[in-house]
Amino acid sequence: MPETPAILVDSLSHHYGERQALCEVSFSVGTGEIFGLLGPNGGGKTTLFRILGTLLPVQSGRAVVCGHEVASEPAAVRRQLGVTFQSPSLDAKLTVAENLKYQGYLYGLSGRPLRARMDRMLARVGLTDRVRDIVETLSGGLQRRVEIAKSLLHEPRVLLLDEPSTGLDPGARHDLWRTLQGLRDEGVTVLVTTHLMEEAERCDRLGILSQGRLVALGEPEELQSSVGGDCLTIQSSTPDRLADAIRQQFPLDVRKLGDSLRIESSNGHELVRDLVAAFPDQIRSIALGKPTLEDVFIQRTGHRFWEEDAAGPPSASAH
Fold first, then answer.
1. Domain 229-290 is classified in which CATH homologous superfamily?
2. Angle (deg, nearest 10), helices 293-301 and 220-227
C-alpha cells in the first residue's frame, strides 16, 4: 500500500469577496520531506498556509493533514501541527526556558514531563546552552530557533513555517536551514512558504504559485532542467525594435520583460556571438546563464517574479 501523504491538497480554491486567492490547487507532501511554496506576495502562499493551519475555512476542495480533514477535523489537525508564523510570537522579556514553559502549559504539560520535553526540543535546535538567556538579547537567528522549539514542544508530525528567513542575515539563514534539515532527517515533515529563490532551492520539492494557481511542481533541479538550455537576458534602448529584428532573422522565441528581452537557447554561447554580430548597435548588454527558478516562473507565467509582487493585492489578507 502506498504511504499516506503527510499533507494532501486537492483542488483547493479560496476567495476574498470577488477576488480569487487560490484556484484549484493540488499537491501532496510526503512524510519527512521539506516542501516549499514559492511565490511573490499576493501569489496565494499565505492563504494556503492559513488554511492548512486551520486559521481559514476550506471553501472549496480538500486539505488533509496526517489523514485528518482540515474542514471537518480541525482539532485533530492542530494536534499534528507545529506552526511558526512570520511575525514573532516570543515574549522578549522572558528567558528561553520561560517562553517554552508557558507554551507547554498551553498544551497541558507540566512538571518533569514538560522539563524533559523542553530539554529534548532545545537540544534539537541547538539551544541547550541558551536556556537562561533573555530572548531580547538573542540574535534574530537564535530567536527563530526558539520559535521552532516552541512549535515542536508537543511533538507534532508536521511543521509549518511562514517566511521563516524574514529578517535573518545569510549566516543565520544557513543555521536555520541546517536545523530544518535535521528535523527532516528525524521524520518531521516541513512545509515552508518563501519568496526567496535561494531558500526555495534548499527544499526537497517545490510548488510555485502565481496569482493563486500552482504553475510548477517538482524538485528544484528538475524544474530548472525543464527550462532547457541557457537563458539570455538582453538590455537594449529599443527592446521592441530589437525583438522584432531578432524574430525576423532567427527562429527564436523572444520575450519582452520590462526593458529586457529574454531568450532560451540550447547553444547560448554561440547565440550570444551571433546576436552581438547581427545587432551591435541595438544591444547594450547581454547576460548568459543557466536556468534559475525565476526562469521557471517566467516560462510558466510570461512575466518576472517581482513584477507580480508589485502588482499584488493591497491588503495582507490577500496573500
1. ACT domain (3.30.70.260)
2. 60
* DSSP of 191-209: EEEES-HHHHTTSSEEEEE
pTM above 0.70, yes or no: yes
| pLDDT tens, residue by residue, 66-96 | 999 999 999 999 999 999 988 888 999 999 9
| CB atoms closer than 10 angstroms to residue 80 | 19
* Residue 307 CB contacts under 8 Å (≥ 6 apart), including other chains: 257, 258
Could you report the per-residue pLDDT of 13-25, keeping only the tens digit for each? Answer: 999 999 999 999 9
Task: Give the cell for residue 70.
Answer: 482540515
- Every domain of the chain and the residues it spans: 7-223, 229-290
SS3 181: helix
Class of domain 7-223: alpha beta
**CA-based nearest residue to 84, from 103, 59, 101, 98:** 103
Coil/strand/helix, residue 260: strand
CA angle 184, 132, 116 (to 5 degrees): 50
